[in-house]
Amino acid sequence: MRQAIHIFRKDLRHCWPYIAAVVGLTAIRACQASLDMPEPQSYRLYTNGFVIACLMALAWWLAIGAAIHGESLVGERQFWTTRPYSWKSLLSAKLLFIAAFLAVPLLISDCIILLASGFNPLDLIPGLLSRQCWFLAFLVLPFVVAMLTRAPQQLALAGILFLLVSYVALNELRSHSTPFLGIVNPEPAWIDAAAPWLAPALALPLIVWQYARRRTVPVLVLAIVCFGLAPALADRWIRFHWSGSPQEDPRYAKVGVRLDADPAEAKPAGTDWQSRYLSGIPVKSSGWPRDLMTRRLLTVDPVWPGRGVVVSSQAVPDSSSRISTASDGRDWLWFSTYDMTLKAEAWGHPARVDVMVNMELDLFERKLSATIHPGRAWTYVPGFGNVKFVEVLGGGYPLCRTALQPADSGWTYSLRDTDNGITMDAAWSVQLFDGPVSPYWFPTIPVNSHAGRFVLLTANPTTGGTTAGFAPVHHDPSQPLIFTAKHQVAKLSRVLIIPKVQLPSLPTRHR
Predict the structure, then answer these.
(1) CATH 2.60.40-classified regions of the chain
(2) Beta bridge partners of 308
(3) DSSP calls for 271-321
(4) Is residue 300 predicted with pLDDT exceeding 50?
(5) For the segment 378-389, what is each residue's pLDDT rounded down to a tens digit?
(6) Element (H or E) spanning 489, and its range?
(7) By the number of CB atoms within 10 A of the CB, which of 22, 167, 333, 420 ranks highest?
């Protein structure tokens, strides 16, 4: 142990510039992440944070390279080989260097950022320890590259090659995981969780072998195999044994939309030209709570038996097609028979056609609510995170922060007055999408922040639709707000057939 401390102190003296760079960049990142965003989704702030994160990753690589190259394992003419250095003491010293000057500063930075964001680090100890494990897994790659090189130039070149190879290989293996919400793959579910840990698990035996025996060439060959060929071979094996295609999760098999009345009940929306060809029919959702489901029309196309379907060239239906809730509480599906007639013109103007409606259903769970007082400190929303309303010139915006949630996505939240009334009867909502953590990219902050510049949905009394635009929240600072959050768990596709829809006879001037 005394020998390991001696080597550790020597590394401290020789590598102090790299240590200073790591500590300085970590402190800058902690100070920046502890501040509120000056305005919603500031591009400048995002760019600065990304640059500092890249500089921190570069500083970690260079610091590890400098410490390991102090007693290079490549070659036979190093000074330390003539001294009674134990490989166990040497390896312990390098691990102690990483823990003291890379892991501990990051842990302190995490605690500072959590406190500034309204979280208590003592309540998040398991998450902090898990984050430290992710960090050490991220540092395994530069450790392996540094112990197989003898100079910074070799470290840089080999590091880029190893990083590219491992990134491509692990991404290929992770491609077997579920790509869409609500869709499951018949391949094994452990792939998505195990693939990111494949590189560090294979690298640890190589590190011990190289320090114990200094067999650079065999270790280099095995490192290339482990970081490049092993994931590719595992990918081929999985593809061979699990050749099925992605399937919908059986938990959502009963979720759907059906007609809530006979098609004969379809009725026009009005008498003016803009709405006289707008036909509506009640529909009913099933299999999921209505307040935790949103429906969006993708396409609305005519179908004629024996002739097939006219596929829409647009990615979304026209503005008149929509689903709305009537005064009787039922959901109504509205579509334009004028457009149906134009699409079916090539069929010889049929009197009736079936209408195929392609819908996208978003399913949510864990609906959470909390009262937010503008101008005050963070409000904790159990199961979600901390929220505050920040006042700025011309309005305000909510600042949401979730802690230690590396792969969470699909949070949607809305904001309303306590009396459920907002100017122009608008509702604001945004979504949080956070990138996954992996050993080839590590986030430098433990908190995911999102400032909401809301989508303003304004009712249009002429067409019955809505108009979208971006705007800050204009609100009386003395009045509290109701914050509601829900988490998306699935995105499904459903097809609804409306049989024998009567098509109008269009006047010549409208063709």
Answers:
(1) 251-357+494-510
(2) 304
(3) SSHHHHTEEEEEEEEESS-GGGEEEEEEEEEEEETTTEE---SSSS--TT-
(4) yes
(5) 888 887 888 888
(6) strand 481-502
(7) 333
